[in-house]
Amino acid sequence: MSQLIYLDNAATTQVYPEVVEAMIPFFTEHYGNPSAIYSFAGEAKKAVDEARRILAKGINGKPEEIYFTGGGSESDNWALKATAEAYADKGKHIITTKIEHHAILHTAEYLEKKGFEITYVNVDENGMVKLDELEAAIRPDTILISVMAANNEIGTIQPLEEIGRIAKEHGVLFHTDAVQAYGHIPIDVENMNIDMLSASGHKLNGPKGIGILYIRKGVKIRSFIHGGAQERNRRAGTHNVPGIVGFGKAAELAFNSMNERIAYETKLRDYLIERITNEIPYTRLNGDPVKRLPNNANFCFRFIEGESMLILLDQQGICGSSGSACTSGSLDPSHVLLAIGLPHEIAHGSLRLTLSEKTTKEDIDFTVDQLKKIIERLRSMSPLYEDFVKKQGN
Amino acid sequence: MYSEKVMDHFSNPRNVGEIENPSGVGTVGNAKCGDIMRMYLNIDENGVIQEAKFKTFGCGAAVATSSMATELVKGKTVQEALEVTNKAVMEALDGLPPVKVHCSLLAEEAIHAALWDYAEKNGIKIEGLEKPVNDIEEKIDDEDY
Predict the structure, then answer these.
(1) Model confidence, pTM
(2) What percentage of chain A exceeds 70 in pLDDT?
(3) At what angle do helices B60-73 and A306-315 cross, to 10 degrees?
(4) Lower CB count within 10 Å: N or C terminus of chain B?
(5) Distance from first CA to last CA of chain A, Å, rounded?
(6) Cβ contact (<8 Å) for A382 and B13?
(7) What are the respective helix, strand and coil percentages of chain A, to the nearest 5?
(8) Which residue of B lies nearest to A302 if distances are taken between CA atoms?
(9) H-helix segments, chain A
(10) Residue B10: how many CA atoms within 13 Å on its side-chain side?
(11) Residue A318, strand partner residues
């Protein structure tokens, strides 16, 4: 394969060379344990503090409100499980949505088994959480609202400010899974009344295996990983110093270039959406047309199945992803696509393409040209399309 | 995740298409679970399958098993075609990932459905052929996937 067109940046991203460069000394030179007392560990400690400062500043939080974790899933698990435990005296009711990442949904299911009650609020056809339903779901025993900042599959950006206001008015904690949004779109934990926020390094050109949970001062959630006294006694384990440094560097680059990146990616994304919806019949765009992540495009192509499409794209050097059952290892297509009201057979034919600031117009043109051929080919093999065409003819 | 043979039959599927006025045609699977196979057979007066074609909505394994199933039944008698089991299809493809085994069951079922249609049209009974289920999931429901 001569070329690679990587359009799966929602899955993970390339680690930028500047990020790798920033990390390397903390493997080889400044390898000291930042918890140690001697001056040799000072560089490592300083670097961790600096990363913490950058990561907090990006969302208008305070450095002491940033807790390093092993990634987005750990942050989500921690936020939900520890809140449930800490506030169980107040109540055992948690509100979330039907389109959350599995790190939230499966944690919520786990808590259900432990005697908590979870309300899964619906979303509209664009994947936007229904605010009236959310507010109506709040009860005296509600302890937490967890709504993702932006959806990982269809890219819809949720109204965080409104959700934060509702949560605050009712005295309920508000957690947001911002794994797809952090460093990609502006988030302000003060304006949006966010009490907890999960983010991950590898979604913004940082390393894998490093994440944060922002915890507002005063929120009394406890330790999830027990052991040493790291992270103000709240998250044990020797600091992943190179990971933390890399995440910090990646966030610095991301926050400094955010406006340009949003402008560039949005323009390219809309060009991709326009070409695909204009040139490929029986296609729909999933997610909100405007309030969506700058790099996310998600489509359903009727009469075809997603995995077949991915394999044929891969043969042309194009990486994408799908919410079809066959790619998830289950028989059900994506819960997100079902939650926005798509029937199973249409949800099976989904394709997510997520761009980066390095994606070019040529990449997009090549992808669309290939996709047109692939879809035509798969439709010509599809009994559903055959039936559809015959029906049209009658 | 797929064997070379599966990739070959997915990338260059054999016998894709329709047959006008086939001796038998059967459609199995459902769109809900993401796989539908339709198999067309032309069977001569001696009960030999002269032509087999398919159309499939589904994943790479679904296409590959359909393609291999049509290859395996071509030239066989109706009785011989009944012996083309899902295992035979899988073996011919050098195996399938565990989560894709249901695709080979679907291919076997598609052969049976087309043969059933042929038997009904001709008012004959094919020994050992049971009425195929429309929805393959009914059959494999109890198995652990």
Answers:
(1) 0.93
(2) 98
(3) 90
(4) N
(5) 44
(6) no
(7) 45, 15, 40
(8) B57
(9) 17-23, 25-28, 42-57, 72-86, 102-113, 131-137, 160-169, 241-256, 258-279, 306-315, 325-328, 335-339, 344-347, 361-380, 383-393
(10) 25
(11) A5
Structure tokens at A286: 């999933």
- What is the DSSP code (8-state) at residue B58? S
Edge-to-edge strand list for the sheet holding B35-43: B24-30, B35-43, B49-57
For an interface test with A, the pick among B14, B15, B57 (most A C-beta atoms closer than 10 Å) comes out as B57
Place of tokens 């930042």: A34
Q: Are B6 and B96 in contact (CB under 8 A)?
A: yes
- Give the position of tokens 């509600």: A142
A29-A35-A37 Cα angle (round to 5): 85
Q: Which of A312, A323, A186 is nearest to A257 (CA)?
A: A186
ipTM: 0.89
Query: Which residues of chain A lie closer than 8 angstroms to B62, CB-CB?
Result: 305, 308, 326
**CA B41/CA B48 separation, integer angstroms:** 10
Q: How many CB atoms lie within 10 A of CB A258?
A: 16
**Catalytic annotation present for B59:** no
Across the range B44-54, mean pLDDT stands at 97
* Phi, psi of A86, deg, nearest 5: -70, -30
A382 at B interface, C-beta within 8 A: yes
Kindly report the backbone phi and psi dihedral angles of residue B89, in degrees, each rounded to the nearest multiple of 5, phi listed first.
Answer: -65, -45
B57 vs A303, A311, A315: nearest CB:
A303
The two structure tokens encoding residue B108: 């076997």
DSSP A240-304: -HHHHHHHHHHHHHHHHTHHHHHHHHHHHHHHHHHHHHHHSSSEEE-S-SSSB-TTEEEEEETTS
Token pair of A372, please?
Answer: 């047109």
Find the radius of gyration of the CA atoms of chain A.
22
| Burial class of A259 by CB neighbour count within 10 A (0 to 12, 13 to 18, 19+) | exposed
Contacting residues for B123 by C-beta, under 8 A, at least 6 apart: none
Tens of pLDDT, residues A299-326:
999 999 999 999 999 999 999 999 876 6
* pLDDT 10s digits, A342-363: 999 899 999 999 999 999 999 9
